[in-house]
Inverse folding.
């Protein structure tokens, strides 16, 4: 978390006091939840300036999660990319290794922060939604660590394609509830999480897994995930004495991306690229809400959504369960409109290629989510000078995805 | 006086509560909704709540979720919904009609567009589940501009601090959601309903209607003794789920039992 006062004209001063990022964000929830959300906001404001809260957060990140995560120069990947680049081109590729965190992704950073808030508010039951299962595993992990009962809502379709994570959650003592409504993926799991929450507001804390949902979630998730960018900034300055030229991160709801980007937003020379999932291609089934959506209201916030002309929400598609969501966090919607961050997209096939490329060149099996970022990195690097630096977020490891990848590659396991 | 206020006033004069009946528009198909709405009126409903189907009805339990899916599965569009409303208005010039649903379909083409269609179709008020007082700007000003009521919800978690904000800009009636939860089977205790209605009525002159979990004539009568209105939804929607296009008969009979219970509730020994 960072609590310095941002300079005037800062890109880091939002949301406003009503939780809006320009026209995006807000608190579009049922009245039943409103008092609780106002309470959460009050409690978060108090926690943010409480040195004891910050100290406990930092301590758990260091000794339980394993932070700081390394900053790694991917020399062989850089060389590989330079083979296809014009002479003198081919930027240096660096990774923030958040896949080395306990539980294997960045999701745990946010879960540590939120469970401390739950404890502070005296809540005794934890619920969460999950797509890839990474956030579900991270939530089940912190619930076990703090001795709280935990219910995870997961789309029935995601349960099928992320079996290892389902078993992990169960080992950690969580109850995994299959959601069979709608497309049976992340969006429907979130609906079910909200339904549980309205019925159990008195004792339940909802740990939302991405930088979306009603205010103050997008803000607090961002703040907890900003440890990624804050560390990376200091590490790179320490190692090479300068800031990166380009930051790249994959976007589902946008939490790992905003966590990397936010501490750099007021560094005008640092460009940023968020990578959405283009699925089968933008003309077909995909999950790129900025590229193919329009502003609307879902799950407590106003943001870009995949939807039809009547405002019915479309089903997203991505090979990566963690990116398979028809919306995006409201701060990204605003950063896109403000022009500060660029957004592009990568297809299932391109992500699979990047997945294999990283395995072979660096001996790292990435999750399918950051494989989207890696694909975009290789595309950008060839046009950039050799002394330029791309810093990408390697936000998850690929153990959970090997079955999906095997199937996509036609390999029988 | 608009139809909503006139309806609550007329019922009050008759010494009874107003019966508010909810169905999801376009369930089982847009062509069937007109007959079902007529059945509600014939059975004795005073106010019709026409649900706008949405892909993600996150405040609804399984019955109404399924109704939303049936409606969307039958291809119901926003245009169909306003056609259903407009046709209803032609057949029933004086029955109050309210649209209920979620923000996204309502604001998709802009709040002004939505408010103007409401006026054209003779819609008297709008209940939006996920636009709380704090986000009123997204829809409230456009509705008020067109004299369409913005009906607000109060819940068991709406504390005294918040109530003034909830009431500010509210019109038509105040909808008291008697359980903290989703629509469906759960029912609140009668004494908690009574206390809540008294608390709300101390703060507003708007009629207070109570809903969520009301299904039997006895429950309806109990609420009718203490509140200005009784809202019934899931129980009707389940009949439609069961009988499909043959639902008008059973729906009319069922509403009749509620209406009878309500009309004698305040005179009968409770
Ligand atoms: C490894 C990994 N990366 C990225 C995401 C996408 O989420 P976000 O955009 O919030 O970082 C997920 C979600 O499950 C994930 O597991």
């Amino acid at each position: 978390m960072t609590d310095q006062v941002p300079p005037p004209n800062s890109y880091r001063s939002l949301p406003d006091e009503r939780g809006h990022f320009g026209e995006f964000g807000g608190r579009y929830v049922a009245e039943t939840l409103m008092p609780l959300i106002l309470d959460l906001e009050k409690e978060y404001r108090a926690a943010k300036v409480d040195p004891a809260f910050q100290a406990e957060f930092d301590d758990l990140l260091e000794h339980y999660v394993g932070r700081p995560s390394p900053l790694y120069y991917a020399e062989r990947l850089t060389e590989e990319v330079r083979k296809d680049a014009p002479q003198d081109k081919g930027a240096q590729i660096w990774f923030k290794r958040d896949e080395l965190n306990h539980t294997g992704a960045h999701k745990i950073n946010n879960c540590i922060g939120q469970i401390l808030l739950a404890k502070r508010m005296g809540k005794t039951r934890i619920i969460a939604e999950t797509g890839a299962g990474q956030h579900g595993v991270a939530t089940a992990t912190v619930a076990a660590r703090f001795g709280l009962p935990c219910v995870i809502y997961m789309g029935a379709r995601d349960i099928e394609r992320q079996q290892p994570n389902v078993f992990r959650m169960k080992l950690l003592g969580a109850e995994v509830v299959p959601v069979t409504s709608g497309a049976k993926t992340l969006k429907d799991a979130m609906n079910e999480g909200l339904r549980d929450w309205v019925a159990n507001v008195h004792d339940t804390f909802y740990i939302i897994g991405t930088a979306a949902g009603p205010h103050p979630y997008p803000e607090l998730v961002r703040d907890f995930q900003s440890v990624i960018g804050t560390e990376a900034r200091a590490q790179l300055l320490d190692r090479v004495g300068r800031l990166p030229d380009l930051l790249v991160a994959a976007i589902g709801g946008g939490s790992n991306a905003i966590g990397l980007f936010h501490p750099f937003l007021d560094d005008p020379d640092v460009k940023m690229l968020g990578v959405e999932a283009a699925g089968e291609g933008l003309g077909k089934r995909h999950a790129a809400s900025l590229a193919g959506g329009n502003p609307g209201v879902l799950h407590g916030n106003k943001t870009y959504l995949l939807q039809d002309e009547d405002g019915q929400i479309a089903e997203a598609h991505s090979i990566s369960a963690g990116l398979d969501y028809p919306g995006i966090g409201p701060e990204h919607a605003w950063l896109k409109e403000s022009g500060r961050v660029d957004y592009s997209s990568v297809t299932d096939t391109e992500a699979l290629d990047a997945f294999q490329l990283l395995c072979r060149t660096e001996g790292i099996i990435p999750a399918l989510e950051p494989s989207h970022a890696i694909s975009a990195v290789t595309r950008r690097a060839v046009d950039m000078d050799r002394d330029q630096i791309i810093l990408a977020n390697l936000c998850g490891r690929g153990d959970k995805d090997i079955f999906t990848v095997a199937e996509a590659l036609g390999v029988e396991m | 006086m608009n139809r909503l206020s006139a309806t609550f006033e007329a019922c009050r004069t008759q010494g009874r509560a107003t019966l508010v009946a909810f169905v999801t528009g376009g369930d089982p198909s847009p062509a069937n909704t007109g007959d079902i709405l007529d059945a509600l009126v014939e059975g004795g409903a005073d106010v019709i709540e026409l649900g706008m189907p949405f892909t993600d009805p996150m405040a609804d339990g399984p019955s109404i979720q399924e109704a939303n899916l049936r409606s969307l599965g039958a291809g119901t569009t926003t245009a169909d919904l306003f056609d259903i409303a407009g046709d209803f208005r032609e057949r029933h010039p004086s029955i109050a009609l309210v649209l209920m649903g979620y923000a996204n379909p309502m604001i998709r083409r802009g709040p002004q567009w939505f408010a103007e269609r409401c006026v054209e179709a003779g819609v008297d008020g709008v209940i939006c589940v996920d636009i709380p007082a704090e986000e009123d700007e997204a829809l409230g000003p456009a509705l008020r501009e067109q004299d369409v009521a913005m009906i607000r919800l109060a819940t068991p978690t709406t504390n005294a601090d918040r109530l003034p904000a909830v009431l500010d800009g509210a019109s038509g009636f105040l909808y008291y959601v008697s359980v903290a939860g989703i629509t469906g089977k759960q029912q609140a205790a009668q004494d908690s309903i009574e206390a809540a209605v008294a608390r709300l009525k101390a703060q507003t002159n708007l009629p207070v209607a109570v809903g969520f979990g009301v299904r039997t004539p006895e429950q309806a009568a109990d609420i009718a003794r203490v509140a200005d209105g009784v809202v019934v939804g899931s129980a009707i929607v389940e009949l439609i789920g069961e009988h499909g296009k043959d639902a008008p008969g059973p729906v009319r009979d069922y509403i009749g039992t509620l209406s009878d219970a309500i009309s004698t509730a305040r005179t009968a020994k409770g």
